[in-house]
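Re: your question from the hallway

Yes, I did run it. Sequences:
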Amino acid sequence: MSPQSRPRVFVTRQIPEKGLECLRQVAKVEVWPGDMPPNRDELLRHAEGCQGLLTLLSDRVDGELLDQVGPQLRVVCNYAVGFNNIDVAAAQQRGVAVGNTPDVLTDATADLAVTLLLAAARRLPEAIDQVRHGDWKTWEPLGLIGVDLTGKTLGIIGMGRIGLAVACRMHAGWSMDVLYTARSPKPEANQQVGGRHVDLDTLLANSDFISVHCPLSDETRGMLDAPQFAQMRSHVVLVNTARGEVIDQPALLKALTEKKIFAAGLDVTTPEPLPPEHPLVGLPQCVIAPHIGSASRDSREQMAMIAANNIIAGLNGRPLPHAVS
Ligand SMILES: NC(=O)C1=CN([C@@H]2O[C@H](COP(=O)(O)OP(=O)(O)OC[C@H]3O[C@@H](n4cnc5c(N)ncnc54)[C@H](O)[C@@H]3O)[C@@H](O)[C@H]2O)C=CC1
Ligand SMILES: O=C(O)C(=O)CO
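Structure:
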């Protein structure tokens, strides 16, 4: 195929080169060069006339964008497993295939959830600050006391790929019992970690640690709000690596400041980035990472390959290897 007749693909951010090389074999690829994502106008302008779009979570893909890109558009793939930024129904109505990059980031994201859980439970940011600021005066019998982990109960909200990987780590490493919610019981969770499928209220009332792993949807938005915090144990450590909007953030702030729960570890917030002056940032018992769950070398490279293969399949009118519906 001559370079002129190749389909056009717009990639909305620099991604690992391996994936781009693969795409360049079959398509004329434009990569957004900015450190910041394209704004709406820039996205609309650069996407117009493309057959493929490789998008990020910060790119809203809706009916307006799809119409402006034009009827030649065949495929959109998010460089992420979550796809709450894409109106999948609008894409399907227009015959546009939608893909994502699951599995290859499961371990990295689960590792980060465990890291946040441990850091929040053992008050690591406060301890590090003490050393940095010259406040480490002596060995203190009553200083920086955290919560214990071994043999406690872990509640997983959304027992999918990442939820199960977190449960496996905490069950094998800390002998935790596992409760979980999901749309249906997961036999693999029962087999691998003895997990019990329960309703949300049961999970909230009986867990010492709670880790959120469900996708963001109309059903899960604001799922943890004031009434849910009121049901939690006062020593709970809450971890969220799913999406910020699953938790009502003002309710979380209140629960933390009023010591209704012990601590939180967040990789996702509302909004992202969270401004440094936001009250959650200043709370010692809230550990916040800047959405780095999948930020490991192998995960990001493999995500790029999956995304490229999805786009290539879509351009060729083949079913996507990793399609969402
Ligand atoms: N922080 C980060 O960098 C990353 C964040 N994520 C987030 O993690 C989420 C989960 O990823 P995976 O485990 O791969 O997805 P998955 O699809 O394997 O698992 C999601 C689970 O949530 C369950 N679920 C759906 N609605 C629910 C509800 N209302 N209540 C309880 N459970 C519900 C589903 O049944 C499923 O078992 C993604 O959607 C994404 O938002 C994923 C990767 C990296
Ligand atoms: O994959 C996702 O859903 C993320 O949030 C980033 O990897």
